Amino acid sequence: MPKNKMIINNIVFIIVVSVLLAGSIASGIYLYNENQKIMEEKSAKGRELEDLQRRLELIPDLESMNEELNNEKQKLSSYIPDKEGQANFVRELEKLASSCDVQILSCQSKSDVFHHKVLPQYPVYQWELNLESNYSGLSQFLKSLSDAKRFLVVSELAVNSLFSEEDGKYLVNTRVTLDLITKQVSEKVN
Amino acid sequence: MRINLLPQEYRPQPLINPKRLFLMIISGVLALSSIGFAFFEYTSINANKRDLQSIKQQLTALESKKDLLQKAEALQQEIEKFKKEVKTIEGYYNQPVMLLDRMTAAMPEHIWLENLKLGTDGKIQIRAHTLDFVIISDLLDNLKKTGIFQEVKLLKIDEEKNEDSGLTTYSFEFMTDTGRKLEYAKK
């Protein structure tokens, strides 16, 4: 065989082998990268599915759960409404006082609206009450405030004991400042 | 002795050049392994694509539940936040019922409360009467022991003599602090 032909043969052989090798390696790398992308997506979606299934397992009956939560939110919204609702408050107060045998001598709302330093989104309307009752009635009235339909808290209290000449019993005259807490509705941004 | 007189290029060549054979084997192995690798990746892609498709289908099937779940979770979070804020607000205030109950429990016999004042600063000022001077110190000790009333401070004691009955009573005033101070920010 002539020497030149042999050299050409070798060169052709090397080129063919190199092309084949390069092609197969390149396609291998390309497929590997593609596979990695799909595997990443698969594992992300798999995690999403697992997380969703786990969360769904925790709440077996979603619809009734949603209904319960909506009712609870409704209750909270009426417990802390977005406005003072004076008529309802006075009605509630009268009901509480009469159930505890407490006489409301006067009831006055303060004109200023206060806000708590840390939670300013809860405006506070203050009401000053002057009450007369016996001690147990007062105690019952103060206790019943925590069971009221509205969020009411005592911020100031002044109790004076009186001796009733009429029936010879001790009464208490109480001046209470009640804080009626409301919730400011955040303005919606369109 | 045999002497080959043919020039080098015309002399008979071995059937396969060992160098070329070695090169062929190496390149063959390399080509085969890279093709095998590519094939493995190709089949793996197909399998992963099928799995991904199935996961996506499951996710689509759960889509409506997912919306409901997200709503429930958001609502739950909102309610929890609301309750937490209510608790925080409650924490700012003194609990008068508890304070009065503890006060009453700490009070020895023969003490009559005349007036009590609880302010937004958490301070309580009390005026009371007693027949026995020593009882006052018992009351102060008892109040300190409750752990609720801080800095129980006696302000004054006045002796009062009733001319008609001849009884001597002591009127006294003291002050204590609950440590809970209400702070408003007027807007």
Structure, described:
The complex is a heterodimer of chains A (190) and B (187). Chain A has 190 residues and is an alpha+beta fold. Chain A has two domains: 1-58; 82-181, Ribosomal protein S6/Translation elongation factor EF1B (Alpha-Beta Plaits, 2-Layer Sandwich), CATH 3.30.70.60. Chain A is 52% helix and 25% strand. Chain A has four helices and four strands; from the N terminus they run αααββαββ. Chain A is rod-shaped. In chain A, 19% of the residues are buried. By secondary structure, chain B is α+β, with helices and mostly antiparallel strands. Chain B has a four-stranded antiparallel β-sheet, with helices on one face. Chains A and B meet through helix 1, helix 2, strand 1, helix 4 and strand 3 of A and helix 1, helix 2, helix 3 and strand 1 of B. Strand 3 of chain A pairs antiparallel with strand 1 of chain B.
List the defining traits of the structure above:
A: 190 residues; Alpha-Beta Plaits; B: 187 residues; alpha+beta; Gyrase A, domain 2; 4 helices; 4 strands; rod-shaped
Which sequence of strands runs across the widest sheet of chain A?
1-2-4-3
State the strand order across the main sheet of chain B: 1-2-4-3
How helical, in percent, are the residues of chain B? 40-55%
Gap between N and C termini of chain B: 124 Å
Secondary-structure-derived class of chain A: alpha+beta
DSSP strand content of chain A = 25-35%
CATH superfamily of the largest domain in chain A: Ribosomal protein S6/Translation elongation factor EF1B
- CATH third-level topology of the largest domain in chain A: Alpha-Beta Plaits
- Quantity of strands of chain A, as a count: 4
